Amino acid sequence: MALSQSEVLAGLAEIVNEETGIATEAVQLDKSFTDDLDIDSISMMTIVVNAEDKFGVKIPDEEVKNLITVGDAVNFITAAQG
Amino acid sequence: MTQPVLKQYSPVKFSRIYALGAARGDLTVTNDDIAGPIDSSDEWIRQRTGIITRRRASAERSLMDMAVEASTEAIKAAGIDPSEIGAVLFSTITHPHQTPSAAALLADKIGANPAPAFDISAACAGYCYGIAQADALVRSGMAKYVLVVGGEKLSDFIDPTDRTISFLLGDGAGAAIVGPSDTPGISPTVWGSDGSHWDAVGMTASLLELRDGTSSWPTLRQEGLTVFKWAVWEMVKVAKQALEAAGVTADDLSAIVTHQANIRIIDELAKQLGVPEHVVVARDIIVTGNTSAASVPLAMHQLLKDGDVKSGGLALQIGFGAGLAFGAQVVVLP
User: Fold this and answer.
1) Per the residue annotation, which of B95, B128, B290, B301 is the catalytic one?
2) ipTM value of the model?
3) pLDDT higher than 90, residue B211
């Protein structure tokens, strides 16, 4: 069954925390991965691969650059779940 | 009239690496030396690549100079005469002649003339491709000893303003002598290629475009994130397959020597593979940079030289890069 937006956010926050050590509470929809969370492109790719695995979705490499905020990623994953 | 029965090579059962040799660029290039043209900093480069310095060769030190130096060391350490070498395999993407091969010249320079000699174009997987072929040549009985060299002068093919790969790159050559053995010394190789990602790492232009004036001097470039993703998550699968093919587990290893592409790739690969603490993970990239086909033998040579691993231990070596090409095998450390 497809997860809700808040469930995807919670799952994504755990992945971000594991990769970067950033507190899960800090991973909010309006936060920018680069500017607010200081996540570099290589860590971002690791987060993407772990998210693909966790949520069973495919995030194309060319799509990653469009995922500016946590909300962008949550929305993409939620939609991709079908 | 009875047709005679053909003779074929008499195979030998096992092969192993007898010895390694190494040569690096004569210049130590710091991050500060190269940060300007890419609008970067020492801190940014260290964080994203792990590199503190890379070794590059001056104009006076050629790819062939480094290959001869590394080969000479390996031959001497193996205790063989160069005339006993039955094949010379040179993995490189930076030999500046389309033809003849770098290997033929190298064979002559080290005293292995008239050994069969040819180049391998498999970029950062080239050394592991070479070991695979040397293993096959030795065990088939086609050659008693094979010299495998991974060597690059990448600094001839970089763009100082390129932020994708140039700042990672260094120069060097690593050499190995492979020969017959009483016990298994080189596991089956897990190797392959994926040309559907042919454009992910390569040159900015072809030589024809240079000739036609539609391009300047071709230099190396890559789609870093695509390569990172492939190099970690696909190569973890290859590494596991290589361990399985060898009949060992990560616990049995003394070391993991990956292509020294980027410390982030090396660390993530080790993490995904679940490398036990007692296994040494080669991180020669920190002081040498990414030397493509040379990086695996250079890193392994350094581990042995520093006493981080002992002769007789097992090492998983894995190369991966442009092609996309990959090769992995478990070897007994010389």
Assistant:
1) B290
2) 0.81
3) yes
